[in-house]
């Protein structure tokens, strides 16, 4: 993990997220934690990452998500040179869909 992120407050946040058990609990927690624009930005980045992972082209991603090319580029950089966090989530979501 990026050493800039490793601090007590961030760890507390991540531990709290790991305690959520249902989709409804997630909705309630994140509605309390984030503003609507913050939550939309996070969910947009995740969708952009999924579309990039599926080899979708930038123009399609812009059209479908409304994300800027700068956002798409930043997410793409994370997919290619980041910590593989997106890929872990995508693999686990795919496995759950297979059940």
Features:
99 residues, mainly alpha, 76% helix, single chain, 0% strand
Short note summarizing the structure:
With 99 residues, the chain is mainly α.
List the helices and strands and how they pair.
Elements: H1 8-18, H2 23-33, H3 36-53, H4 58-65, H5 69-81, H6 85-98
Helix pairs in contact: 3-5
Structure, described:
The structure is a single chain. The protein has 99 residues and is an all-alpha fold. The chain is 76% helix and 0% strand. The chain has six helices and no strands. It has helices spanning 8-18, 23-33, 36-53, 58-65, 69-81, 85-98. It is globular.
Contiguous low-pLDDT stretches (5 residues minimum) are none
Shape estimate: globular
Q: Please state the structural category.
A: mainly alpha
Question: Helical segment tally?
Answer: 6
- Cα-to-Cα separation, first versus last residue: 30 Å
Oligomer: single chain
Order of helices and strands: HHHHHH
How would you state the average pLDDT, rounded? 93
Proportion in β-strands: under 5%
